[in-house]
Specification:
- It contains 24 helices and six strands.
- Mean pLDDT is 89; it is low at 1-9 and 24-37.
- It is mainly α and 499 residues long.
- The strands form three sheets. It has a two-stranded antiparallel ribbon. Strands 3-4 form a two-stranded antiparallel sheet. A two-stranded antiparallel sheet has the order 5-6.
- It folds into three domains: 1-223 and 388-499, no CATH class; 228-326, no CATH class; 329-381.
Length: 499
């Protein structure tokens, strides 16, 4: 079992916070405003929001090209890269196995006597342990998939040379939007395939394609129990009566498309669940999905005033219903608001949101086009629109700054930090995903943990190249501290907590 990194003494933690002015949670001293697009404020905003954070090479590139030009260029870079296989280091390459192989590995694991004994003594939806599993042990197949996925996710987000920054950003955004929980045992073997093929591949494509990719993926089918939803009264094994499961239908409308105020009712939830009966897993299929006609409710249904059924093509009913939800005006509103909150501000200007909605509607849900509109907006670059880093933001930017993401020990320390900070990778249990707002993460105890992590991570790194991106007051404070502490204090500084 992995031992957590030792915490700094309490006195040192308090002194770090006091030294940097973090304890009072006051406003961040702004960087000096300048006119050029290559100045520190816009460069910092570009690398911290379009991606996760600064490396010396990335900062030099953005300064040379200009922050706004570089940011806009990243849309095309990310979209092109999303259509090719990701650069996954050999240690994590096992997460790219095809779905039939994943089903087979999960089957062998379930049939193992050792696996059954271990799971009999634990809760079925326990959090993921953070020690590294062995690929040679078939009883650790699911954990190897989950840990490999988490390691690649961290590395790809903290190394701009491994994954285009905006593609890593959008992969996180859409995974959170279409959240699945790695702690649910049946989901765990498929988490890497879901992240790479359902999310990453469609992250800058058409929103409609992204919704269908998640709807048909075994990870989502297992997570929200859609795979076992059947027409009411259907007979299952041993003559047992099975019935409708509304989980996926509800979250598809409430979270994935329309939003909670999108104009649907509980009756619509039930009708959509009836429409989607028969959408289940296909272990022998390359896609992992199949439609089972015998499980489908062939009756007439009415969803949002539209009638479905009676055509003899049950799968097409589901396709037509999902497509109608995707193209509903409430979906454009919800998706664009969330994008503006993720990239611009916890409370983005409504004028920006409506501009994004028009772009979404006119382009028929072209995510890349919506991002171009967002990155060209004045609101994205306005200094008053601030965003506080989540724990994942902070760890990825700190690993980028220290260029330590390839060190397995750093990854384990980071897993531990994220678990303690309340944002374990792929670890949110409910379908709504993690919150991104400052009110959730900007609390004194969390800042203490960040200071500890920063000093630990930067022990053998030099981050003083970041001093031009800090306020004069912070620079003066840090440069008066012991040289051995300065790199860590830069990562713990007030300015580094914002993006």
């Amino acid at each position: 079992m992995h031992t957590p990194p030792p915490a700094l003494p309490a006195l040192r933690r308090r002194s770090v916070l006091a030294t940097l002015g973090l304890g009072a949670l006051g406003a961040v001293p702004p960087l000096r405003a300048q006119s050029s697009a290559s100045t520190p404020p816009e460069v910092w905003r570009a690398v911290s929001r379009v991606g996760y954070g600064p490396t010396p090479a990335l900062l030099a590139t953005v300064r040379q090209q200009g922050a706004r030009s570089w940011a806009l260029q990243q849309v095309d870079v990310a979209r092109t890269a999303s259509q090719t296989a990701p650069a996954i280091p050999a240690d994590y390459a096992h997460i790219l196995q095809p779905l039939p192989a994943l089903f087979e590995g999960a089957r062998k694991e379930r049939e193992s006597a050792k696996f059954r004994r271990e799971n009999a003594a634990t809760k079925p939806d326990q959090p993921l342990r953070i020690d590294r599993p062995s690929l040679d042990d078939p009883t650790q197949f699911s954990r190897a998939m989950a840990m490999g996925t988490a390691a690649w996710h961290l590395r790809s987000s903290s190394d701009p040379a491994l994954e285009p920054p905006l593609l890593a950003r959008m992969t996180e955004f859409w995974f959170n939007h279409f959240n699945v929980y790695v702690g649910k045992g049946a989901v765990r073997p498929f988490i890497g395939h879901y992240l790479v093929h359902a999310i990453r591949t469609h992250a800058l494509g058409r929103f409609e394609d992204l919704v269908f990719a998640t709807a048909r993926h075994p990870a989502m089918l297992h997570y929200l129990d859609q795979w076992q939803s059947v027409a009411e009264g259907s007979r299952g094994p041993e003559g047992k009566t099975r019935g409708l499961n509304e989980n996926y239908a509800r979250e598809l409308m409430e979270l994935h498309t329309l939003g909670v105020h999108g104009g649907y009712t509980q009756t619509d939830v039930r009708e959509l669940a009836r429409i989607l009966t028969g959408w289940t897993i296909g272990p022998q299929e390359a896609s992992g999905f199949r439609f089972a006609p015998r499980m489908h409710d062939n009756g007439t249904k009415t969803l949002l005033g539209q009638r479905y059924g009676g055509t003899g093509n049950g799968e097409q009913e589901g396709v037509d219903a999902i497509r109608a939800l995707v193209r509903h005006p409430s979906t454009a509103q919800r998706v664009c608001l969330r994008l503006a909150q993720f990239f611009v501000s916890d409370t983005p200007p409504d004028a920006l949101v409506q501009q994004l909605v028009r772009s979404f509607t006119q382009s028929q849900g072209d995510i890349a086009q919506v991002l171009r509109t967002l990155l060209q907006s004045s609101e994205f670059w306005a200094p008053e629109n601030q965003l506080f880093k989540t724990p994942l933001d902070f760890t990825c930017s700190a690993m980028a700054a220290t260029q330590t993401g390839s060190d397995p020990r750093v990854l384990l320390h980071t897993f531990h930090f994220l678990n303690q900070a309340g944002q374990p990778l792929h670890g949110w249990q409910t379908p709504d995903g993690y919150r991104f707002d400052a009110a959730t993460w900007r609390v004194p105890e969390a800042l203490t943990r960040r200071a500890d992590f920063a000093l630990l991570l930067a022990r053998n790194s030099d981050t003083r190249y970041l001093l031009p991106y800090l306020s004069e007051r912070t620079v003066q404070t840090i440069t008066h501290e012991a040289p051995a502490l300065q790199s860590g204090l830069i990562l713990a500084s007030p300015e580094f907590q914002w993006k």
